[in-house]
Amino acid sequence: MSFGSVKSVPVFVMLATVVITLTFGGLTVPAQAQTYTVLDNFLTGGPGPQWPGGPLLQGRDGDLYGDSYQGGATNNGSIWKTTPAGTVSVIHSFASGNDCQSGLTLGTDGNFYGSGLSNCSAPGYIFKMTPAGVVTILHTFTGQPDGSEPSGLVQYTDGNFYGTTSKGGVNNFGSVFKITPAGVLTTIYSFDNTNNFSNPTSGLTVGNDGDFYGTQVGGDGLGGIFKITPAGVLTLLHHFTGNPDGASPMSGVILGKDGNFYGVTQFGGTVGDGRVDQGTFVRMTPAGVVTILHDFDPAKDYAVFPTSPLIQATDGNFYSTSNACNEFLSCGSFVDIYKLTPTGTLTVVEKLTGANGTAAYWTLTQDTNGTLYGITQQGGTVNGGVYFSLNIGAKAFISLITTAGRVGSKIGILGQGFSASSVVKFNGVAATTVTRTGSTFLLATVPAGASNGYVTVTTGTTTLTSSRKFMVHNSWGSGAAMPTAVYNAATGVVNGKIYVVGGVTTTTVADMQIYNPVTNSWSTGVSLPTATDTAASAVVNNILYVIGGSHSGVYSTAVWAYDPVAKTWSAKAAMPTGRNGARAVVEKNIIYVMGGYNGSSFVDIVESYDPAMNTWKEEAPMLGTKDIPAAGLIGTTVVVAGGANAPGSITGDTEGYNATTNTWSTLTADPTPRTGPCDGVIGSQLYDVGGYINNAGAAATVNESFGLSADKWTTTLAAMPQGSFFAGSAVYKGQLYCIGGEATWTANPINNVQIYQP
Does residue 180 lie within any of the structural domains? Predict the structure, then answer.
């Protein structure tokens, strides 16, 4: 290869296909089956890139893009690209300053977006670059109030980019911001170091629930993982303690294929060398439950003090680099590429000793040809850095520029071998509108009828599948049918499974049916001690509570608690008021049971149950009576909407309850009064779906949501495919499950499982 008049330099190749054992500094490092190849040695002094940065990004043209701290036409740094084989070219040279970049994001408009530091100094800027290399500065930070030292960007479904600054902001502890493609920046959250919660360390990751997840180091240096909504509502999910779970997460978290989040901490854990612990590899559920999967140990791992982000390749394993750069070890010691299985087994893939690269500050990128690619900032033949590949034997696939969208939205697809005959399908539904750019990029419109699932591109006899499932927002899917159709059952999600208990078939039953959303399968559980229907239900600390209900004209006060580990039911303190049709909502581990029917009248009664104390307490009544309403917790407010308020009368009245002050307030009424809906809170919205509308023969299909912050109902959501009332309701991983119910007023239940993706 060459840069203008610069002579080509022979490529240094390091192959790790022979089974050998390497020894370094007393550490035994097993060689791996993966093949590591240096594809290019970066030169010094320009006009090509020197001391490259990353991580690399695959563009629409099939090339990989990165930046460099030096090199370029004026030796002040550059943005460059390379073919997978290693033909490198500079597409933008910085005029001055040795700018430091934090990687590129490919926008849906085909341009590249990123953040950087002029002269590698705060406060930094956001820029856009065309494929031809024309750079436009969209925003220059000032420190306060907008932030300083921005991290990488992620484009959200609203078309805007979201990111963090590690410093600055209103309180000078960092911020979360959004910026339009035109450069209008809005700070949506400023950290204030409350509870040592400050200074985000990396960019954001979008979860399956549509919220953002990130990490921060905090005032105590231990750090934590947080969630923030696009509207700026932030929740600290986990605060690290050092030992045993880790400390100082420097690289953010990534969304795993199983819906959980994975990341590494630079310090902490249980393995120490007398100075500081070496770091951890952890998994976190969307609810914030952290599991330690691996403690980094230099005695056997070689990798220590991980700071680079992880990637999950199509083989299901996680890959990254370790540079062992901290106050105890000089940068460049113990540099390697490692692999982690989802259960935490670490394997050293390649030990970087200088000739084959060093200073590996960035993670790897998997090209759609299946091979992993990466860079080191230094090392190689003249210490200008190297561009390398790692062949893990993975097959070619397609990569989605956007992994979520609505029907009618245009989705970019990266791959190879595309032609005019390529057929794109979204979870089996063919896209009718597809445009192609070369052989590496398709733009497909999400077709009507598409649902969550993998995207495929078939060209001739070859079918490539997306590495991630595509999420079709505002869409309905279906799950495996219930073995026994039922309505008015109690439901709850415990440890990733949906429990459906009691209800009515042709008579009131005590059955337990368990649905596994991951395997889309049903199993049978331990029946209730007594048959009941139209009971309230709630889950606290992984225990399912079934409260009240009725059977044979008796309105129950019984409270049953089910432990899914022991698989046993136990009786708890009876509810003061026997009733069915009540709704239960949990706030701060207290169960609030509201409304219902006591056998003679509809009630506004509210009673709270403390599972820890096994005691009941009377609370302020609702403003109106409600039987089988929609209910859920939005933030810290219990919201209750609709329900029957008298025989033959259904209300749309909506109320909010503040448990701290024990007071109710009036909210905007539901435009569609109904009772017995499928309902649940996802994000900041209460979804109210289907249900029984007074004097209607068939169940409603209308789908609406209520937002508390705006006190507003949204009425334009996709209708339920099969109308249903008195269905079981459950929320799991950002989706609403509507299970069974009745389609008409005939007392004949249906066994549908209808799944709504907001």
Answer: no
Q: How far apart are CA 57 and CA 62, in angstroms?
A: 10
Which long-range CB contacts under 8 A does 516-524 form with residues at least 24 apart? 517/479, 517/732, 517/733, 517/735, 517/737, 518/258, 520/479, 520/480, 521/480, 522/480, 522/482, 522/483, 524/483
Of 426, 448, 469, the position where a domain reaches its end is 469
DSSP secondary structure letter of residue 549: -
Task: Indicate if 409 and 308 belong to the same structural domain.
Answer: no
Tokens 């700018």 correspond to: 99
CA distances from 639 to 246, 583, 642, 679 (A): 38, 11, 10, 11
Residues 197, 204, 687: CA angle, nearest 5 degrees: 95
Q: 388 has which bridge partners?
A: 38, 374
In angstroms, the CA 57 to CA 154 distance is: 13
Question: Scanning the structure block, which residue is given the tokens 């609810």?
Answer: 287
Is 93 a member of any domain?
A: no
pLDDT at position 566 is 97
Residue pLDDT, tens place only, 189-241: 999 998 888 999 899 999 988 899 999 998 888 999 999 989 898 999 999 99
> Do the domain assignments include residue 92?
no
Q: Which two tokens stand for residue 320?
A: 């990254």
CA-based nearest residue to 538, from 656, 625, 612, 632: 632
Total number of domains constituting the chain:
3
- Show the DSSP H helices in 441-577 as ranges: none
